[in-house]
Amino acid sequence: MELRVEQVQGISVVTIPVESLDAGNTEDFKKHMIPLLDQANSMALDLAKLRFVDSSGLGAILSCLRKLNAKGGDLKVFNVTNQVRLLFELVRMHRIVDILPDREAVFSAFSLSTS
Amino acid sequence: MINWFNKLGGWLGGKLERQAAARSLSITLILLLTLGALSFIITRGMLLRSINQQLEHEATIVAQQIEIELDQITNAGFNLSTNPLIRNALVDSAGRGAYLMPFLQKYRISQLIEVQVLLVDFSGQIVAANNEGVVKITDPWLSSVVDMNKAWAEISSVDDVPWLVLAWPVVYPATQMPEGALVVRLRLAELFRRNLPSPELETVKELRSNDQAVFRTDSSLPGAILAATKPLPQESPLDRMGLELVLWTNSDKLTSAMQVLVLAYVLAGIVAIILTTMFSITNSRRLVAPLVELSQVATQVSQSGRFDFRLSTERRDEVGVLAKVFSEMLAQLSVKHEEMEALISERTRRLADSESRMRAVLETAMDGILIIDAAGIIASINPAGEQIFGYGAGELLGQNLTVLMAEPHRSQHRNYVANYLKKHLGQMSNFHQEVSGLHRDGLAIAIDLSVSKIQLGDELFFTGIFRDITQRRRQEQEIRQLSLVAQYTDNAVAITDAQGRVQWINEAYNRIFDYPSEDVAGRTPWELLSGAETDTTAVEWIAAQLAKGHGFDTEVLLYARHGQSYWLSIEGRPIANARGQIINFIVLQKDITQRRRDEEALRRARDREVAIGAHIQQVLLLGAPPRNFPGVKVDVYSFASQRIDGDFYDFIKLGDQVLDVVVGDVMGKGVPAALVGAATKAHFARAFIDLRASRESALPEPREVLGRVNHRVANDLMTLESFATLSYARFDLGAKTVTYVDCGHPGILHYHQQSGSINTLKGENMPLGFRLREEYVQSSVPVGPGDMFLFYSDGVTEARDRQGGLFGEPRLLELFAGHKEAEPSELLSVLYQAVEEFTGHRSLGDDLTMVAIKIGEDETQTASLLHEEREFRSNLSALSAMRQFVNEFWDRNDPLPGEADALAGFVLALNEAASNVIKHAYGGVESQPVWISLDLHARGIEARISHLGAAFDGKAPQPPAFDGSRESGFGLYLIDQLVDEHQYLRDERGRQCVRLAKWRKEQPVNGTTS
Q1: Which one of B394, B441, B560, B723 is at 20 to 30 Å from B611 when CA atoms are compared?
Q2: CA-CA-CA-CA torsion for B749, B753, B755, B761, nearest 10 degrees?
Q3: What is the ipTM of this complex?
Q4: Which band of pLDDT confidence, cut at 50, 70 and 90, is reported for residue B965?
Q5: pLDDT classification of B932: cutoffs 50, 70, 90
Q6: B293-297, B473-477, B917-921: lowest mean pLDDT where?
């Protein structure tokens, strides 16, 4: 899984390149996230392509959030498709992870929280 | 006699005394006997003479008396014959009767004895008699008396009584001629009785006439020995009779007298013998006593070897001289003897010392020592030697040495040893070699022998010193063989020290592991050979066992130098020394790689076989029940035991309103039963085709179908020695009837809602395969909405609990009655859970097959409108394909119109459930089958995820913990949130199954379970 990472205003913007995040590829995703999480403090995941995420995928995202929180950082997601938003809401994930409409909203949210 | 004297002499004294006594005694006895005999003869003669004289005297007296009597009688008789009265009477026949009788009676011839007197005429006629009774005289002498005029006398016997008869002629005076006779008769007994004097001797009197005995007073006289004879008177008429008297007497008197005499002599003899004996003994003792003493002393000297005896004799005769000389001789001998004694005892003591030392050496020597003579005969052998050959003390002495030799030497000539020794020791004085000996129990023993030659005077001896080296030889042999085994075995052998460091390895070790010996030495085998996949715990365990000094035995993967891995069975055994300290380990490493591979292959083959078997059964025997047959709800439960069984069922839709159901069981297990079941099932379809073809459009009756099926499969079943039981039922919803044929299968349970009754539908037809042509009988029952039918195989009622108890029909009926109004799926779920609970384990011993059919009122809501099933692999990467399958189905059929969001939730729920199946049911093992079936219902969608993995069920799902402390259970929680129904069950084909259903929101759902 090739994760595309951009550093914009101190925020690591990671684009998820796959349509689904399930038990079949979560391990791969986690492996690639580890170095990124080590470098970053604030991170945003671009979920534009993602159509499906299951419990293990949600779990993986959750563990990313936990790691960043541990060192005072934060994780936000944006460009979330309807299906995925539905899943997030089903498991009440939207209460823990901020779901933002787009990239701009991410930047402003981070600047708000840091200021 | 002499013995008796000897005995007596023994009691009386020594031999010489005995001889002297015996001799004087015998002379005395001879004299005594002679004198006794002479006295006896003389006395006897005198006695005889005295008796004889007495007898003579008595005879004379008796004879005189008889003589007097006879004289008197003869005179009287003669006088009477001449009496004139008598004479005249002969002719006076007229007058004589008056006087003659009284005259005769008055006339006394004898004063003492009774006498008959008769007067007879010339013809013998009795003229008169002094007593009656005598009639006539017929005696021949009468004519002689009358004719010759002479007197007659004779002794005649009348009635065995001897009579003396006397007769005189009677002369008629006128003519002077005899005209008759006067007869006088008397009993001789009377004569003797009257004339016996009182006797001094007991005698018998005998009368003799002319030397003939004519009368005897007593006929029996035993022992009569003496007789005296006297002549009796010779006057007329007795003169011609020569009468004599003989007196007999017996010897009684003489005998008793002689007895007294003999007794007197015997007494006198005994007294004489005693006196003589005493006298002669005393005498001879006195004479021979010094000689006896002399002999006793000589005997003592010779017996004791001492010379300090002296004779006490003081006599001056020859015996005294002899005794004196003997005493002097003894004194001299005594002195010489003492000198000699001292010398001998000194020498003996020295010899004994030396000998006992020598003996001690021989007796205690560990080696056997023997001495043989030149002929090979054993002269001496010590105990160690006897023991080596197994003989007892002294048994070998005198035997030829060959008895100790093994064949062929043992059977050699007895001179073999002698010749051998001569040959081998001709020049040398000794030799040393290993030979083969023969133990007494017949076993050959190895002997190390050295032989030396000894010359003792003229004689040649050989001494042999030998020891048993059998044990040593055997050990050497054993060690040689063992080392060969260790060296050349195919197993790797190492000998290590107590710490496991290698000291020696064999060839195989080199060959297998390819390390040079110097690399191996000093390191433990497992340290050297461990590699990437070596089980470190096994190696640690070996090290721990070794440290404790214990043996070990395990299997471990090790590596050769070039990297090749081997499965090895490692066996280590501690070797202890005599003090029990462990000094070495022997480590045996056996290459079991091939075995491990074979085992692995075998296990995989078995798994595959089971999987294939199960798959065959799924495909061939068990079909999918019709899900969308209007008016009928069908559910099926089937559990195949590990061994493939012959349970099968089939549903045949015949138009919109008729459904045929077949539930059967082929007797037997395994692939043959399964295949026959499959064939039977296939023949139903064919039977329909055949029957419909021949009959245009009419529907064949169940009994016809069965008849045809039986006809086709009976032969196969009979060949296989099998048969099939089945229930065949036709549900005709148009006619509202169920027509059934039962062929030996457990009955069909039928709940009739209208009447509320439960019946068992059972026929009496034979199972398939009993007969080629079978007429089947079918029955019909009416059905109505709400009726429930249950078909089941005997695996249900014959399920057994751990104690062997049967599940049984009553229990089944009770459960059926309790759930008669439930949905078929629920009824079956209750039933199989009850059976599982009863048997106490999940894998039942037998197949279970149940088919539940419920007649519905309006089936449009629950019947499956569309059924699709697809098979996937148990790979997590397959999850997206599974989702794709649902998405597409959903897109085509839109199960929940107007609920666009529901799709995402349903897909997620299915994804989670499938993920659980892969991760938990299959434990992450990939490429196993996972079936997903989707059913479109009027009120929503239903999904089943079936698999062959382990059963599992969702515990009460808990909300996710977002702190990440718990990952599991998240999926279950999601599923529960996302679907309306969520169940774990076995599907109709016995597979484990997760069932998910999502119903339309506006339509409330009854009776769902979650």
Answers
A1: B723
A2: -20
A3: 0.88
A4: very low
A5: very high
A6: B293-297
Instruction: Report which of B439, B462, B443, B455 is spatially closest to residue B385, judged by C-alpha positions.
Output: B439
From chain B, pick out residues whose CB is under 8 angstroms from the CB of A90. 905, 908, 974, 977-978
- From the list A52, A55, A62, the residue facing B962 with the nearest CB is A62
Rounded to 10 degrees, what is the CA torsion of B761, B764, B766, B771? -140
**Residue numbers of chain A with a pLDDT score lower than 70:** 113-115
The residue type found at B802 is R
Whether omega for the bond prior to residue B237 falls within 30 degrees of 0, making it cis, is yes
The C-alpha torsion from B90 through B92 and B98 to B101, rounded to 10°, is 0
Residues of chain B with pLDDT > 70, as a percent, come to 88
CB contact under 8 A, A52 and B911: yes
Of B52-56, B127-131, B176-180, which range is least confident? Answer: B127-131
* DSSP track, B805-833: -B--HHHHHHHHHHTTTS-HHHHHHHHHH
Residue type, B25: L
Task: Identify the pLDDT of residue B323.
Answer: 75
Residue B31 has a CB neighbour count (10 Å cut-off) of 12
SS3 (DSSP) at B731: strand
CA neighbor of B887 nearest in space, from B868, B873, B874: B868
What are the residue ranges of helices labelled H in B13-155? 15-82, 84-89, 96-106, 141-148
CB–CB of B879 and A23 under 8 A? yes
Q: Which of A22, A51, A62, A64 to mutate to test the interface with B (most CBs of B within 10 A)?
A: A22
- The one-character DSSP state at B51 is H
Q: What percent of chain B has pLDDT over 90?
A: 9
Which residues does A30 contact at the CB level (< 8 Å), separation at least 6?
A60, A63
Question: Rounded to an integer, what distance in angstroms lies between the CA atom of residue B711 and that of residue B27?
Answer: 143
CA gap B30, A60 in Å, rounded: 160
B569-627 pLDDT, tens digit each? 889 999 888 888 888 998 888 888 888 889 889 888 877 766 666 666 667 777 777 77
Q: In this structure, which amino acid lies at residue B986?
A: R
3-state class percentages of chain B: helix first, strand second, coil last, to nearest 5: 45, 25, 30
**How remote is the C-alpha of B852 from its chain's centroid?**
69
- Name the minimum distance, in Å, from the CA of B921 to any CA of chain A: 15
Sheet holding B929-937, edge to edge: B864-873, B929-937, B940-947, B992-999, B981-986
- The answer to whether the Cβ–Cβ distance between A66 and B964 falls below 8 Å is yes
Task: Check: pTM over 0.90? Answer yes or no.
Answer: no
Angle at B586 between CA B583 and CA B588, to 5 degrees: 165
Question: What's the pLDDT at B964?
Answer: 46
What's residue B302's pLDDT?
A: 78
CA–CA dist B130, B337 (Å, integer): 125
Burial class (CB within 10 angstroms; exposed 0-12, middle 13-18, buried 19+) of B621: buried
Q: Does residue B633 contact residue B606 with C-beta atoms inside 8 Å?
A: no
Query: Does pLDDT of B8 surpass 60?
Result: no
Tell me whether residues A86 and B904 touch, CB distance under 8 A.
yes
Using alpha carbons, select from B395, B98, B47 the residue that is nearest to residue B252: B47
Nearest CA in chain A to B960: A91
Confidence of residue B1010 (pLDDT cuts 50, 70, 90): very low
Q: Is B834 helix (H, G, I), strand (E, B) or coil?
A: helix
Query: Degrees (nearest 5) of the Cα angle B896, B901, B903?
Result: 60
- Residue B787's φ and ψ, nearest 5 degrees, are -70, 145
